[in-house]
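Pair request: fold both.
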Amino acid sequence: MENRNLTLSQVNEFWKWFSACHKDFGVNFENGDLLSELDSRIVELGNFAWELGPGIEMENMLVVSPGGRNELLPQTKEIISNSPSIPNWEFHYAKPPKQWKEPIVNLYKGGRKKRIIASSWQYVLLDYSDGLFDIIIEAPNLADFCKDDKLIAAEIILEGLLGEEKRLVTIAQVDVVSEFEAQYKEGTNIKFLGQHIGQLTDK
């Protein structure tokens, strides 16, 4: 879908609808008809992704996400900046970092779901003057997966660790290897990525 101009009246109409029906999603968000309508209404606003689920500080959370497209961040920020105050709800303009005990992603191979734990992954950042980093990730437990699946897994883990916005504005190219080349033997555990990037970008 092509990106389109977003108007304040569209945003206000969306929140008017959401305010009227937010209690009807169900305790476990099992109201399929209402979820379908939510999807349709967000699609009417633009080419955004969304998530609905338990919140970080509140009971419930709605994320209206740019779907990995940096150029849509201003629009999702506008949508969320106009959100109403609703008891037990929090709203985000990009996917926040996951509250993981350990970073995990599920991939499918041969029709079977495989649980990939990323807590032992190592990474190397390549610094560029435009503020973006390329990252090389050493993930031996992805060796049996194709290149596309490796990148999907890496993107999910990066987004979960950093949050969607920080990933978009700090990470450019992602490369996944089973073993670092000799010059990159001094990798860093993936759990320190957010702290590392924060130190580099706060200089």
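--- second member of the pair ---
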Amino acid sequence: MIYELRRYTLRPGTRDTLIELFEREFVDTQEEAGIEVLAQFRDPRAPDTFTWIRAFPDMEARFRSLTDFYTGAAWKAHAEAARATMVDTDDVLLLRPVLVPPFEGVGSGGASPYRLTVFPVVEGSVARFAELAAGAAACFETEHAVNTYAPLPVREGENVFVRFTRGEDAPAVPALDDHLTGPPQHFLLHPTERSRVR
């Protein structure tokens, strides 16, 4: 599976407007185009952001499904309203899962949020981070395939290890500084009403 982790910067005060529009008009219609809309999140520490995840069987399917969706009736009807909430939509990581099946067994609902950590890693060092999968809800690494759907940019030329854990506190991390190219990014995420991941 190929995953997109998408983090949008929004115009102040528009996040709930976008989430309501997204969950009413864009979840089912993406699914109909063959896209698995896996999770949508609010970040209470960054109220003008929207984070979400979608998945595809492979890169060819991704191209077909994105083409179908973005030329389809739902996007044509509501794109202008969606774009009116957005400042930047290019913070997108193309990922593949590492070790644990992503979010397996966590869909039944829980009170605690998710902590997302994005580790920028030295090329070839992802295996060193595999031990972080223990106890994680999901782990991913960069998918280096060429972005075949040019209208939607993704972050290129970087290597990351991405981990989702449950709870507000950052879990302990072994000493991995020698394998990092910069400081990890930490985000606190609460699932939205229609998020599959709860």
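Observation on the second member. The first strand starts at residue 2 and ends at 10.
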